Amino acid sequence: MEYVNGVLIVVLGVIVLILKHSMKGYGEEKGKLQAALEELPKLTQKVEEVKKKIEVSNAEEIAKIVKGVEARYELKNHYSKEVFNKEYEVLENVYGSTWKLQACVQTIMPVLDKLPVDKEERKKVFQERWSRYAEAFNEFRDGVTQKRPFIPGDVVGIVDDIWKVVRKEHCRVEDTYHNFLADHRIQKSGVNALDHQEELDELIEKLQEGIRDWCNKQKGPDTEPEPSDE
What we know:
Blueprint: H1 2-108, H2 119-145, H3 153-183, H4 197-218
């Protein structure tokens, strides 16, 4: 009996030690869990802060990209507008100077001309006509040569053709002028300067159509919706 009691005491002692150890381990684990639970709000807050920083950073980056695109688009539009304005100005000057030149050529040798009888007066009238023509010729020449790089490719070929005709016509007009200075008469051969008028008129009309087509192209495609078949 005493032996059995001794064994029970030993067993109980072992159980007590095990329970004590278990309680100690449980307390430590519970403490760790409690500490983790206390840290959780702090961790959550840090996560939110990092998340906000990332969102702000992304938003700023996107804003920079959008701003850059807008700046490039604005620059492109500004460049396109400047190019259009420059080309339009050049075309306007070329077209206007062409008509001015035509008018001056026709006034040098009008079909029904009536010059003064006095030689000096006749010379003065013709020199005035020549001066107006020379001014118009120089204006046209400068417009199609010095500003040629700014003439749109759509019409530069037409302008070149006009310039060729004008040069040929200019030679005839010069001959007429020098012949007149020599004997105060318009030589019959001088009237041939008008031979190029019809060709020039056709080219001017062609230039007018080319400029109109070029302007329509700059407006871009028609974006209005097509009518429905329904």
